Every structure is written in structure tokens, then in C-alpha cells.
User: Fold this.
Amino acid sequence: MHKIIPIILAGGTGSRLWPLSRESFPKQFLHLTEDDNSTMLQKTYKRIENLENLSKPIIICNEEHRFIVGDQMRDINIDPLAIILEPLRRNTAPAITVAALKAIEDHIQDNIDPILMILSSDHYIEDINKFKNSIENSIKLADEGNLIIFGVLPTHPATSYGYIKSKNNLSANNDFFANKVDKFIEKPDLKTANSLFKEKKYFWNSGMFIFKASSILKELYKFAPEIVSNCKECLNKSKVDLDFIRLDKASFSECSNVSIDIAVFEKTKKAYVLPLNCGWDDIGSWESLWNISKKDSYGNSIKGKVLINQTSTSLIRGEEKLIVSLGLKDIMIIDTKDALLVANKNFSQEIKNIVSTLNKKKIKEGKEHKKMHRPWGHYISIEESNSWKIKKISVNPGASLSLQMHKCRSEHWIVVEGNAKIQIDDEIKFLSKNQSAFIPIESKHRLSNPSKSPLVLIEVQTGDYLEEDDIIRFDDIYGR
Assistant:
């Protein structure tokens, strides 16, 4: 009996969905679609959870997102087999190699060679039953040692996806029929995309795969042995940190920054493409989100506090402020607490370049949100100047910040909701609503929420330097 382990890749940045998706909190952790309140990561597992012989997932993410992943899995009552932390980005080949090695290692005593189902954490699937049928139809082929990639039937000549050419024509209506891969094509220009779209041998590359752990490792040994060697070393030197596996940075950095497509699938003779016709989208841009969103009779996708007049085929999303649109067409308006995007919908793919420009100029809104998530809760930057900053801090029930000290700033805490336990040097205080405490520069301090209700307070910082790296930690239950 085969065992299927979902390998969920959750390391992307989603820069084309800026300003909602940013490096500090990318699209896979957001609620983007209207069907329920689940995040993209949560949907990725929930849509397959009833498959036969399905294991709990292995999730691979960037180390700075580890607590977000942990929290979102707990919210849907899933305890992953492992949450593997990448110390830096190295594309899909190293990530999948680590997952395959880990899966073999965990099942070696049971003499099980698990089937790995490689899933991206930010995809949209409209028809979940068709998707499950495609997975089930791939199992026999994978059991025979083949490597399966899902090819999506193109609905238009897209330039934002890579393409897969099969050796023979495939029909997306025949979900049982897979064919050998002939070649891969990188994201084409529009002229090439139009040509590919007219043929019946070309499919979009979904970036989803199914194969036995031993099968992919065998091909990796053949075509990219150095990646296997480096990944073995980084796993052997990895450290268990709470619920996470921290890969060794030095070994992992030696891995080539290469996709599994280039490392293996373009070279192997065991690659098969299986047609996928289930309403798939990678939600790679605001335009693609508009495509799959519910729209009014004028083609507008609206979310938030929005008033429209004589506006059509537009995407408008707001968080708090009222947005009024008058006489617009094919426009994207995305309003967040600290950034506003207004663009023609046809320029959706160009947003990634805007984010690169913001990052080159070291404009922090390119990477960071006003709301920053932490293992104990989150904080929101409300207002700041060169010598002062105001934050709203929310601490989860039973959670504690680290015992810490600041060299450059003092802090004043005012409780506005809940109850706080505060340590300042050797003194312990308990504060309730409307009570406050002052933390001088270089005082050791810790904030805790001893109750079963949320704790919310306002923090006022004053000092010559107010950045987050002015923290000296003495004790931290989260291992930071």
C-alpha cells in the first residue's frame, strides 16, 4: 500500500501582489479568495486532506516565516510531519531534495518508499474533485518509478507561465492519459505564446509533481549529485528548534539555485505530463486574482469600504479607508495601511519591478508591513518620527515576549485591553486597563499575557535609534 506525503513549498515572496503581499508576510499566508476565510497555505492542505493513504504534510518555508506557518497549521488542527526552515532561498530543486531525503529517513525502518506530492502553497483550484481525480490517476504511474508533472490545459496564450510540450497530443478531458514529456519552454513572449496555444501538445507548467521519494532521488543522483550531497550534509547538521528543523546554512548555501525542472525534468527520460483541467491559477498577479474573483455586473471585483460610480472591469481592495472610484476602467486600486497602488490592470506583471526598485532604494514598504507578526502575537506601527514611535501591541493569551533590553530607547506601555504581567529588572507588576508602566533605557524587561483573553497595549518609544535590531535577548521561549 502506497503512502502519500504532501510536500508544501511555502517559500515564495509574491512580489507581484504588492502592496498586500510583501516579503515579511507573502501571499501564501493571506486570505485572497472569497470562498472561505482560509489562507492560501491552509487551502493547499485542506483541498487534499481526504485523499486515501494521505500523510500529514512536510512544509518547507523561509525561517523568518516559521511561526506564521506553525500558527496557520494549528488553526486548521494539523500537526505537520515537519516544518523545514530554509536559511536562504535556493529554488525548488534543493527544497524537494531535502524533502525526499527526510521522507526516506523517516520511513526507512518501516521499509516504506513514500510517494511525494509536491504542491505550491499559493495556487487556486476551482474544481477540487477534478484535482483529486488527477492525483489519484497519477499514483500508478508514480508507483512504477516515473516522475509526473501536472500540465494545465491553456485557456489563453499566457506569457507568465512556462510551458510543457508532450510527445503526443493530450486531451484535458481524458484525465487518465499521461504522456512523456518532450521538452520544457521558459516563459514565452506573446508571439511564441500564441503559437504554442494553437497546438495540442503544449501545457502550462503548474509546478506540481508526484513521484516516489526514491525515484526523484535516483534521478537527482544522476543529474545533480552535488545538490544531493549538499542537502544530505545540511540535513545531518540540521538542528531541531521547537517544532522546526533548521537546515545548516553553510551546507545549504552551497546548493545550486535551480528549479527541479532544470535540474531533473529537462534531462530525465522518466518524466510524464498529466493533463490538469480543474480551474487552476497560481494567483501570480492582481490581474489573475481579478480573473478568478466574483464580479459585479460591470466586471468589478470589490473588497473593503468601497463606493464606485461609472467604473468597470476594475479591481479595488481596501483595508480601512473609504475608497471612491469615479469614471475608471481596467484599474487596480490596492490600499493598505502604509502603501497605495493605483495601476492599469494590464500592467499587473510590472509590479515586481516596482518592488525591486523600492528594495534597491531601501524603502521599507517594499518588504515590510505596518503589521508585523511575531510568535507571541503581532504589532502595528501607528506613527513615528526620528526620535519617537507609537505601536499597538497584541499579545496572545498565555504568551510572553523575550526577556530583553534596549541600548538606545526607553518605552512606555499603556494597557488598553486585557491584563499584563510586566517584569522590569527584578520587579514584577500586574497591570489592567488604563494602567501603564515605564521601561528605562538598558532595563531588562519582559511583557506577558497571563490571562485567557487577548492583551492589547499602546507602546510609546523614545530614543536616538528605534529600529528592531536594538534588542538584546536574555531569555526567549521561541529560541530567537
In short: The mean pLDDT is 92. The radius of gyration is 24 Å. The chain is about 25% helix and 30% strand.
